[in-house]
TrEMBL record:
PIN domain ranges (all copies): 61-180
UniProt KW Cytoplasm keyword: yes
Pfam family, one: OB_Dis3
Protein name: Exosome complex exonuclease RRP44
Required co-factors: Mg(2+); Mn(2+)
Boundaries of every RNB domain copy: 464-794
InterPro entries reported for this sequence: Dis3_CSD2 (IPR041505), NA-bd_OB-fold (IPR012340), PIN-like_dom_sf (IPR029060), PIN_dom (IPR002716), RNase_II/R (IPR001900), RNase_II/R_CS (IPR022966), RNR_Ribonuclease (IPR050180), Rrp44_CSD1 (IPR033771)
Subunit-level organization: Component of the RNA exosome complex; within the complex interacts with EXOSC4, EXOSC7 and EXOSC9 of the exosome core complex (Exo-9). The catalytically inactive RNA exosome core complex (Exo-9) associates with the catalytic subunit EXOSC10/RRP6. Exo-9 may associate with DIS3 to form the nucleolar exosome complex, or DIS3L to form the cytoplasmic exosome complex. Exo-9 is formed by a hexameric base ring consisting of the heterodimers EXOSC4-EXOSC9, EXOSC5-EXOSC8 and EXOSC6-EXOSC7, and a cap ring consisting of EXOSC1, EXOSC2 and EXOSC3; DIS3 associates with the base ring of Exo-9.
Principal place of residence: cytoplasm
Protein family (similarity comment): Belongs to the RNR ribonuclease family.
Subcellular location: Cytoplasm; Nucleus, Nucleolus; Nucleus, Nucleoplasm
Record has rRNA processing as a keyword: yes
Amino acid sequence: MLKSKTFVKKTRSGGVMKIVREHYLRDDIWCGSESCSECKQESTVLQRDACIESNLCPYAHYLIPDTNVVLHQIDVLEDPVIRNVIIVQTVLQEVRHRSAPVYKRLKDIIHEKEKHFYTFTNEHHNETFVEREPGESANDRNDRAIRVAAKWYSQHLKTSKSDPDGLKVVLLTNDQGNKEKAEESGLLVYKCEEYIKSLIANPELVDQLALSNDDKNEITSSKMLFPEHLPLSRIQAGIKSGSFLQGTFRASRDNYLEATVFVQGEGEDSTEVLLQGLQNLNRGVHQDVVAVQLLPRDQWVAPSSFVLQDEGAAKDDDAEEEEDRVLRISAAEAARKPTGKVVGIIKRSWRPFCGMLNVSHIKESTRHLFTPADRRVPRIRIETRQAATLAGQRIMVAIDGWPRHSRYPNGHFVRSLGSAGDKETEQEVLLLEHDVPHQAFSQAVLSFLPKMPWSITPEDMVKREDLRHLTVCSVDPPGCTDIDDALHCRELDNGNLEVGVHIADVSHFIRPGNALDKEAANRGTTVYLCGKRIDMVPELLSSNLCSLRSDVERMAFSCIWEMNHKAEILKTRFTKSVINSKASLTYAEAQMRIDDTTRTDDITKSLRGLNKLAKILKKQRIQNGALTLSSLEVRFHIDSETHDPIDLQTKELMETNSMVEEFMLLANISVAQKIYDEFPDCAMLRKHPAPPPSNYDILLKAAKSKAVEIHTDSAKALADSLDVAKVDNFPYFNTLLRILATRCMMQAVYFCSGMDSDFHHYGLASPIYTHFTSPIRRYADIIVHRLLAVAIGADSTYPDLMDKHKQSALANNLNYRHKMSQYAQRASVAFHTQLFFKSRGILNEEGFVLFVRKNAIIVLIPRFGLEGTVFFDTKDKATPNLVFDEEGPTLKVEQHTFCIFDKVKVTISLDDSNIQHQKIRMSLIDPVIPGVSVPAPDVEPQAKKPKLDR
């Protein structure tokens, strides 16, 4: 049956357009129930024996949740107990429109066979489709459509079953009006909460219920702690008029009474508004999109240089004393910033948070505080009857709301993750907190992998060059199995050199738009944790068929240059190829071959040629203004049985690291230029913006403290001044200065060439750049491979590749995934560093002051690549006399003044008093300040301890 609706629409030019919409209705849509004998269905989802033990429904029944139940109680619906649920099409469409994350979770549930969730297309069923009535809102129409579908199911199951009283349909809604109308229609209907509380064998499921706005069982207070949020209409009008600003709320890690709101502007006109104090934060949560109002200029303050120590204790509903303390400290600052207050919430970015329960001291209380693992997220008040079980566990909690009278938001328990401190549990927390997709690859994804045994076929060779005869080899870190790149260098008959960079041809195996491609695009990058790798693509590809291992034939995408001996490029060509790597070397093995003068084999000669050219290329890059910065990376030596770290050392870089890097950079620049020339509107490029001048403040002050001049007018000026920055008898000074310079830099990002005009890569001093050399572990490189393949006629294009808006949206996701991957990797290093120090008691180490704060110094320990804070206002002893000078910056503690780069000696130990926020604690040994410094403990001398001033 066909229903059509005709209406007219006025066009921009003033004409009238007639629009006809057709809606098809059918009589043959299945109900999906095993017990049905009427529907001629090939397969069923809903079970005949649909029993959940319930006081309210002591009979077999199916559940039909309305839209709001799905949106707000998805945690409950995901529980294994809840089965045999009918999701009507109306609900599915509304959920898709209102919340993409919930929609994805709902689709995942529907695909789980053991859950028995059935999608009923009521909008196309002849007996359940309802027209919107005159004056009826879209919401009321949808509620009516859900009731009509529930009524149809009730009658349909009665008439199609020999036992008409056995199987019923229960509608779940939290809307009182909807519930009353359903009861008037003779439907069996309950509120979600009363149904869940009726489940006899699963009382713990009540903990997973999200609180609704009309719940009256929350703690109330006569005192309103926060100003009221303005309605969205007022906010939108205020943003339009310029009286309010819209931006992203970013809470401080160091100070829970401070945040900034990042307001995105045109080009470089973005600004940050400082927020201080509970009232001005006004219930903003990290990453929320908020509306802020600027305070009068005389109320602007500076960011606090005060570091608040987390003592682990939950605060009560009154934090005025601490708030005043922080505000008094900040108001005295000279360097004031635009300061404001949150007036409304535009979009909440709430997600389930990992953390631990602070069990209430009140006996038999069901109300407890939850402390998130992320310090930027406030504590959350939840109700649970499982407190005794959950104590000491890592759990997940979701926020439901934040009333004006409550110091903390309200939320509900989602699930337990395992015992705190357990390595597997902590790794799971780490991945969840950084939103790293880490579930096993689905069967749908795996179905697109090539069938084994696999080999290169004659068809594969049609558009490929056979380069198996070349002396190609790879150079990687020890234990690398996902080998992306290999190199070769040989002398040509004309005396020039041929240099080739050969990159794994991942795009041959991952075709656009299939499940494998979508999964790789979503993951965006491989995440490397200590002792574990979360692959972007399945292992068959990452460690086998795409990996350019030695002595096997592999498909590659090759960038080949003809160069003279001055490393000047004479010709460049790109080709899909087949290679056979002659050696898989580590950096150390490659270095030994180059240095061993007795070796003259082809591989060694190739490496020496590459190394010689790389040195010239690097020199040219630096002359052009490329930066050589520094950051301390650490490598853990892991016990093969316990998987605990047994040694920790900073990574040492060799010439061969630089050799590989130079040719990867050159390949990326060559490919960037090629794809931009061919596709100026849709090339996937990478840029590194120049830092704003204010970013360099700390670097300039630090250099000035040692009478060293640093110029920041351009990347070249900075590079040149860093090269000559030296202090007598302080060889490590230059490294420290470069570490500080690294902290001043902006983040490099992917972008679509048709959506931006600034392509420059500041750090590399290159006018154009992209990522081509690591497609096994970066999805951006796969896109670049596809563009390059189309450019040289080796593959065909597809619509999304040429759509600059879709490319731009993809770039945004890749930037997000890359950033979260970096954070996850740092968190993994921090966790393994804690494990390393856990069994070592107290160590004495030398370090340098990297930053000076009002109440602390931040110390870098080069031996371990470790930063820690030495506090001078500890609660267990009298606070010493502290004088902070921001201009220095210096901190005078009693009679001793600390400056950046000062050498200090500290004790290092693990403070595990707060199991969730274990941290490395440092105490000052030298310089000796009476009443402040601690005596040096007796510790065993550490083997192979390097001198810092070598």
